Amino acid sequence: MPSRSHVGDRHDGSSHVVALERSTPMILSTDLVRTLAEIAETGSLDAAARRLEITPSAVSQRLKSLETLLGRVVLVRSKPVRLTTAGDSVVRFARQAQQLEDEVLRNLGVVSRGIRPRISVRVDTDLRSYWVAAVASAAADIPVDISMFEEGVWDDGRESGQAAIAVTVRPEEAPGWETISLGSVGFDAVASPAFVERWGLLRAGSLSFSNDAPTVIVRGRERRHNTFLTADTHTVSDSITTVPSTEIALAFAEAGHGWCLLPRTVTTTSLQRGRLLRVSTTSIREDYQLQRWGIHTPAVEAVISRLQQTADTLFTSDIGGIERGGLSDATA
């Protein structure tokens, strides 16, 4: 195999040639990359050793061998350990390779170390009960890991390889991922009848009240809230309560602790039963995407199918944007 050379410049301006080693194909050892993935998942070398059923020194040696092979540091030896950018890439590869291997062996009727393929799914906090139910319906046949992320925290697991599927309102696509449109959902400003009366929210059908009127916002959804306020020509309230989920925001709104911008699919029953009122003629819509690895396996497709079926019952095909209704709509 031919050797490579590099022409460089000396400090005096003349050129010199540095001979490099002969190029050879680099092969990532399965044991090495899977060891790093286990370290990342468990948070320490000792915990990874217990899971892999090898000694901690063997884990340390594999890690050293991987870094020597790549010529890069893949792990920061902190507590807990932390992957470098290079380590993120290796772990993403390890998880994708593991999934493909498990699917192949499963299709051949061979059990891979007694472990069935496991699909990692991450969903944002909006409508999470619906997404969890959709994934749970597939979990009887396909082991899954499901976790939540907030819009303001953009580590939704895609870049790091910690997720195979992500449901998000973010349009950005990570390298190697594919995007499937799920549809859009309307968000309305709602509050309890007692809150509406106490703060005088319905003045000519709009949010006409002082900035002292309490507001409830789902954590990470400040951008959506501000978009609504801009569309409805209002400013941010001076009294804001932040909660971790849509379900908790709904409970706060029904209890009269503030007005809140909530998905229409969540508020329908409360509106019908008089527990909530729409307090503005302005609504906004947001588009949801399902983003998935560019790897097509039966397990991934099964989970995606359940999520799409759920989306079909929740969303319309409307394009996201600002929506305005009449006074009768606001009080319906």
TrEMBL record:
Pfam families: HTH_1, LysR_substrate. Keywords: DNA-binding, Transcription, Transcription regulation. Gene3D superfamilies: 3.40.190.290, Winged helix-like DNA-binding domain superfamily/Winged helix DNA-binding domain. The keyword Repressor does not apply. Residues 28-84 form the HTH lysR-type domain. GO terms for molecular function: DNA binding; DNA-binding transcription factor activity. SUPFAM superfamilies: Periplasmic binding protein-like II, Winged helix' DNA-binding domain. The keyword Nucleotide-binding does not apply. Belongs to the LysR transcriptional regulatory family. This is LysR family transcriptional regulator. It comes from Agromyces albus. The lineage of its organism: Bacteria, Bacillati, Actinomycetota, Actinomycetes, Micrococcales.
